[in-house]
Amino acid sequence: MHCVSWWTPFIGYGLTGFTHWKNITFEYSYKIVDEKPRFVSVDNVVSYFTGLNIAVSWNQIAKSTNFIKKYNEKDTIVIDIAGYYELGTSINGFSLGATKNDKWETVVFTLVP
């Protein structure tokens, strides 16, 4: 298994991308078929925020992974993440604020021979 970490700046709700990053990590395995790499599996897809997070948090509720052909069969993974932002804070397990559903941009990862 190999692990990949993917990040992009977060911009929204009055916050700039200089202090917030959206992160996606996943593990994958592949095999060589006819001298070309081919994905076998993608596991443990997790999305999260890092950086200075004041009153904004991310909660992942769904993910989808698909194998596609870019150069060779099953050489590319497409990952989509869905979830919601929690704007506000939580005190003793009770949320104060609002939530907003969102879908993070698609991550595309290709194995190159």
Molecular structure report:
The chain is built from no helices and six strands. The strands form two sheets. A three-stranded antiparallel β-sheet has the order 1-2-3, with no helix packed on it. Strands 4-5-6 form a three-stranded antiparallel β-sheet, with no helix packed on it. The two termini are 18 Å apart.
Write out key terms for the chains shown:
113 residues; mainly beta; three-stranded antiparallel beta sheet; 6 strands
Level of helix content? under 10%
Structural class: mainly beta
Across the major sheet, the strand order is 1-2-3
Alpha carbon gap, first and last residue? 18 Å
Biggest sheet, open or closed, and with what strands and sense? 3 strands, antiparallel
Order of helices and strands: EEEEEE
* Beta-strand residue percentage: over 45%
Spatial extent as radius of gyration: 17 Å
Give me the number of helical elements: 0
Low-confidence stretches are none
Assign an overall shape: elongated
How would you summarize the topology of this molecule?
Elements: E1 2-9, E2 20-33, E3 36-51, E4 56-68, E5 76-91, E6 94-110
Antiparallel strand pairs: 1-2, 2-3, 4-5, 5-6
Brief overview:
The protein has 113 residues and is mainly β.
